[in-house]
Amino acid sequence: MIRPALFRAVSRLARFAPALLLGACVTAPAPGIGEAVSWRDLPGWTDERPSEAWTTLEQSCSRLATRDRRWQSLCADSALFPQPDDDTARAFFETRFQPHVVNGDRGRKHDGIITGYYEPLLHGSLKRSERFRYPVHGVPDDLLIVDLGSLYPELKDKRLRGRLDGRRVVPYPARAEIAQKKINAPVLAWVGDPVALFFLQIQGSGRIRLEDGETLFIGYADQNGHPYHAVGSTLVNRGALKVEEVNLDSIRNWLATHPREAEEALNSNPSYVFFARREQPAVGSLQVPLTPQRSAAVDPAFIPLGAPLWLDTTLNGQAPYRRLMFAQDTGGAIKGPVRADLFFGFGADAEKLAGNMKSPGRIFVLLPAKREIE
Predict the structure, then answer these.
(1) Would you tell me how many other CB atoms lie within 10 Å of the CB of residue 67?
(2) Is the Cα dihedral 7, 12, 18, 22 positive or negative?
(3) Measured distance CA(364)–CA(240) in Å, rounded
(4) Range(s) of the domain holding residue 164
(5) Does residue 229 have a pLDDT over 90?
(6) Is 69 inside any structural domain?
């Protein structure tokens, strides 16, 4: 015989059982490229001037058309319109691409942060001196890259970096050790500001003005294999800055006013970037020149390099910033599906915009329409 209290408990469970079962069947979309949406779902698309992004599309085509059949006919047809007006460019995008929402972790579509980067200018010399004594290193001669993708498909695009110690492969030194010890690496130039050099490594490319007026263009070539850790997070964890205060200027000012603690703070980021000389400014991971406010760095584990993106965010957390961009770069700090780093270009204005850019936002990726695949 069922006791009254137990009967009431079973009855309540029975009433809620359908809802519990329904909830158990609903799963959040997987992180990354999700469902197709209409062009009307892209906030601000009708106000965009897509003709201004045409050159950036051609840059992506220069790499993708030769190695991805989905892009071959699309890029061949784009070449028929060397300088389209906005109506023609808009019609091309709307007929040749299909927008897809990018889902964040646990299916949230606003689960990401949009930041910015720029191309800094440093002053330096080809010879070491008392003024210029901080080396801009090229790729070390003893840096080993171990690619296990051919044996373990799940590790495709994952590379281990290290060096030989006898017959063993050991991790390559972290930032602190590289700064303290001489490493077996060429020196491309010597600069006078270690903090500026640190930020150059974060930006990934830059220019060095030499004493004779010549300018060196340098870009990312490799790194030491250690994970990136934001120095802003270190300063927040130590109580030096508040989360809402963290930006390029506040970090730089803190480092300048705390010279004794600055080196330790910088070394909290064990990642160290090595450079190569370039013939032109700012080349991204797609190996094409970056276009200010049209190129972005993404995580290629979720968004294919070269693909057009529609960003729905704000500029410095204020004015709406909705723009057609292209995924043409990557970065050690750019991890996750709804994550983009906008390239703002070179100069003081670009530095200011990039240094203050940290806003929540949505990302839509534009993939070749189905007819381009068939």
Answers:
(1) 9
(2) negative
(3) 36
(4) 140-184
(5) yes
(6) yes
